[in-house]
Each structure stands twice: as C-alpha cells, then as structure tokens.
Amino acid sequence: MKAGKRVALVGLLAALSVGLGALERFVPLGAVIPLPGVKLGLANLITVYAIYRLSASDALGVLTVRCLVSALLFGSPVSLAMSLSGGLLACIGMWLAHKLPRVFSVYGVSLMGAALHNIGQIFCAALWLQSAAVFAYLPVLLLVSLVTGALIGLISDLLLVRL
Amino acid sequence: MKSMTSASNTCAEFRFRFGDFVLALAILLASVLLIGLWSGKQGTVAEISQNGRLLYTVDLSEPQTLTVEGRYHNVLRVENGTIRVIESDCPNQTCVHSGGVTAGTLCCVPNGMTVTVRAADVDAVIR
Predict the structure, then answer these.
(1) Is the dihedral of CA A114, A133, A24, A18 positive or negative?
(2) Mutate which of A7, A51, A157, A158 to test chain B, going by most B C-beta atoms within 10 A?
(3) For chain A (length 163 residues), average pLDDT per consecutive 10?
(4) Which residue of A9, A90, A109, B124 has the fewest CB atoms within a 10 Å radius of its CB?
(5) B14 dihedral zone (left: phi>0; alpha: psi -120 to 50; beta)
(6) Looking at the partner chain, which of A106, A111, A140 has a beta carbon nearest the beta carbon of B24?
C-alpha cells in the first residue's frame, strides 16, 4: 500500500472510531448497569477491523490516534491514561488472538479485546487512585464484557465478510 | 489494504472456534473467583456497646487495644481479625474465657458491654 493511502486509511478509521465512541454516549448503558466505565465499546469495532485488515503497526496507530483524539475532545489526561492502558492491552491481546485463527474466531478476538480493555482500565484506575478497592468493579465489568464482546464480535463478523 | 477478494482471514458468519468458548469460560470463572475473593477480604468491624449505647466501631484488620469502663473494667484486644477480652475485673470472667470472635457476639454482662462483629458497609472511600 502506498504511504499516502495508508495515512488516509488509518486517519479515516481513527476518525470513525472517535465518532463511534462519541455516538455510544447516547446509549445509556449506565442506567442498566450502574458502573463507571461500562460501555458498548463500539469503537472497538474499528480496532477489530483494523487488526484483521491492516498491519500490526497500522492497527496500533488507529487505536492510539483514537485514544488521543477522544481524550482531547471529550476527556482529560486521566481518561487518556485509562483509555490507552485499556486500549493498548486490548490491541496486543487481540492481535495475538487473531494470529491464531484456528483457535479464535473474530468472536474470541472481540471478547479478548473487551475483557482486556476493562482489565487494563481497572489496573490504571487502581494505580491512579492508589487503591485496590477499584478491583471490586472488575467482576461485573468482566461479565458485561462477555456480552459486549460477543455483540461487537457479531457486528465485526458481519462487517469482515463484506468489507 | 489487503485484497478484498482474499478470504483467508475472514470468518464466515457465525463460525465459532474452540478458543472462543474457552476464553468466555475463563472470563466467567475469573469474575466469579474475584467476587469470592473480594467478599472474603471485605473488612469486618466490631461494634462495642455498653448498656445499649454504641461506644466504638472498630476495624478488625488493625491491631489495637481498647478499654470499656463501667461498673467494671474490660480490656479488649483486636488482633489478626479477631477481638477478645484480655482482661476484666468482673466477678464471673466469662467474657475473658470466651476467647476471640471473628463473627457473632461477645459480651461482659456485669459491665453491660457487648461486642457485635459484622461486615463493614462501606467498600472504600475514593477521594
């Protein structure tokens, strides 16, 4: 792929990612599951797509740009740190999972992403707050990640077949 | 972009793999385990009352010594998550012989003192 095309594509995917992240704020998942940081993770859709269709560095690029822009637009330095910890861990895990297509399908990759994203964020929160108490949220977040991971996996599956 | 006609790393719809289920199970087990571990580590507190009036609420995770003065003098010691009466000048000494409790109650009837151990109702305070 030519360099220019690559830049444009990564930029496009990153922008989409930011957009999806903003869009999912309209879904009040927090009303159903009253935990901080519980999200559908629609932006992960793009990350999964990038992992399957682009190189590792490009996928990582999409994720990093998404985290940076999202934090700049909607968040704070703290949210950036949390976003990156969750995102980077998830990206690495998802990449590894996708490298084993006979073990994990896109559903597994997506689940991996959802779970690792939450784990990464909780670890970051624990470090930031200097408190192990936040780990109390982890069990429920993990259970939620089972559902959201499967959902994003489904959409990714449908997406990857067509695109 | 990889060729769109290449289907080598596209999953056909709804084709699951063994690893997916293992992972899902692992996440499920991890969350259950964490719930189990966490509720065990929850702080327990002892409420020390005298004649129905709450005197102290003590966190059992920190070693400390307390005194309850009344008709008689009770010295309570908190250690290793248990609370016990180490010294008392009451006539029957039942309280001293009761040993340590990690749950339930302990009392010195002559001194009107009761100790009730229960789970803490605050997980953590995040500032």
Answers:
(1) negative
(2) A157
(3) 89 95 84 78 94 94 95 87 94 95 93 95 88 82 93 92 86
(4) B124
(5) left
(6) A111
Smallest Cβ–Cβ distance between B23 and the set A5, A112, A143 belongs to A112
pTM of the model: 0.68
- Is the pLDDT reported for residue B95 higher than 70? yes
Angle between helices A106-129 and A43-53 (to 10 degrees): 120
Tell me the C-alpha distance between A142 and A121, whole Å: 12
- What is residue B42's three-state secondary structure? coil
ipTM: 0.86
Determine the Cα–Cα distance for residues B92 and B77; give it in Å rounded to an integer. 19
Residue B79: half-sphere exposure toward Cβ, Cα within 13 Å: 8
3-state secondary structure of A34: coil
CB burial of residue B108 (10 Å; 0-12, 13-18, 19+) = buried
- Closest-CA residue of chain B to A7: B1
Chain A residues whose beta carbon lies within 8 Å of the beta carbon of residue B2: 53
Determine whether A82 is exposed, middle or buried from the number of CB atoms within 10 Å of its CB (0-12, 13-18, 19+).
Answer: buried
Rounded Cα gap, residues B48 and B68, in angstroms: 9
Among A139-148, B9-18, B54-63, B80-89, name the one with the lowest average pLDDT.
Answer: B9-18
Contact check, Cβ <8 Å, A142/B31: yes
Q: With CB atoms and an 8 Å threshold, state whether A104 touches B23.
A: yes
Cross-chain CB nearest to B13 (options A111, A112, A157): A157
